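Friendly challenge for the regulars: who can give me the structure tokens for this chain first? No prize, just bragging rights.
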Amino acid sequence: MALRMVIDKTMGLASKFYQRSVASQLTQTGLRYEDIINENEKEVAEALSLADPDTVTGRSRRLKRAIDLNFKRKNFMDYAADVDQETFKKEIFDDVMKIRARDQEYAMLNAHNK
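First reply, four minutes later:
Bragging rights claimed.
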């Protein structure tokens, strides 16, 4: 019990440190965390197909801008220093989690067929 509490505390501190380091890298390129999720995963592809067209357009524009800035070896903050990027804003992640839960439920309901 005590070991579990120590592990949870350590993992919490490590995750906060990792989140800050990822956020600083994403801020440099102008990306959000959801933009770097692999869109070739089945659940993510389905969530993107069901998402609002503005969300998909914004994601593709941010990715193209990041590629362009990387090619030019520039920083997004050089161009828009006062912009709040909302690095960890969730637009499709909730849908991805619902799709994963649905697929798991479907697999459990059909487990007797195997």
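The helical segments are 2-29, 42-50, 53-72, 76-79, 93-109. The chain has a mean pLDDT of 91. Your move, everyone else.
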